[in-house]
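Onboarding guide, step 5: your first structure request.
Type a short instruction followed by the sequence, for example:

Predict the 3D structure of this protein.
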Amino acid sequence: MSGNRRKEIVRHLSMDDLNRLLAASTDQKLTERLIFLKRLYKGATLEDAADDVGRSSGTATRWGQRWNKGGLGLLMPNFGGGRPPKLDAQQQDRLLELLRDGQPWKKQEIQHLINDEFDVSFHPVYLPVFLEKLGLSYAIPRTKRPSRPNNAEEILDERVENAFDESTKEPHNKFEEDDPEGWVVDDDICTDGGTVIGFLDTSHPQPWDNSQRLYTVDDPHITRPLVKVDEPAVGFYALTGQSVLSFPVDQTKEEICSCLEAIREQNPAKRILLVLDNFSSHVCEHTRKQAHTLGIDLVFLPVGSPDLNPIEQVWKSLKWEASPLIVESAAEYRALLTELFEKLTNRLSFAASWIENHLGGYLQKLRYPLILRRGGCHGRSRSCCVRHRNERPRRKCRHHRCWLRPWPR
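The system replies with structure tokens like these:
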């Protein structure tokens, strides 16, 4: 019985007018109401017309009554604009100026500032929502060193460009004030097999690093043996090629050169571009000359710019994954770090933005394909996609849905 209800509809508009409004409508609410009216004009029941626009029979009854009473003006919803904001647009602009002058802020400090300046209080749960609508970001502030130049990324782009420029005969690692003698690549070093690019950095992970939250029933603690690792960890995060983790005795220039030799040993017959910071044992002439002898070109980051080195994120993830694990000796901990480093450096996601920002024009010069995927491939992405290396056209890897660059011949 209810499925056959028909409503006597007042024709405030002709069918042609309905069609013209429907064709011009960009408002979903208006469109579904016009479709509903058009179905009623053609003799459909209230239930059938409501079902066509995904509405209930009760809604169909209310729509029919409102249309008959006041036409389209009464049929369209009127939300009334809601409750006015506690801070108007001018006050919100003033708040942004105050926050910009005194940033960064804690949430409680912002609450007090709003109370003092505008005599307004927000519920603690709503305050983060309000601040997000204002455009504020909530994150751990990244330390910015006073020595960092304002155009750090432009400086890095120029240095990467110079590193890929093989037309110059001057050794890339040589500075103007260096001794001109001794800048010769070892005869046993071959660099015509492609290009390896990677990032070098030193870290000091320890078995007691505690950076991961864990669930416990009782008192949250972990009983650990007293193990300390005195040697630093020097990592080479390779985008193309083999990543390497070394544990030198210290960070002297001789030990750093030994790490460079290990990198060369794991990446033979290729030119190596190594991105690293300006630590004293990195930039000294001895290290730069030895790197040139090994066929390694050094690309130094701008001063005070550790955030431009993607391996920093590798260290962060490595410490996070190692923190809940218990080891009995320094040797066992070094073996654990090596295993975790090898696993993590198989991911290109740590350097996805670096590749996009600084390597865009040089991808074809690299020997191995770079897998560029929004969010990055995880885990086994590289080993998976290398199976497609003989495919000349650009294609998608079916395993990870990641774009594969053509493999240069």
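Each response can be followed by summary notes, for example: The mean pLDDT is 84.
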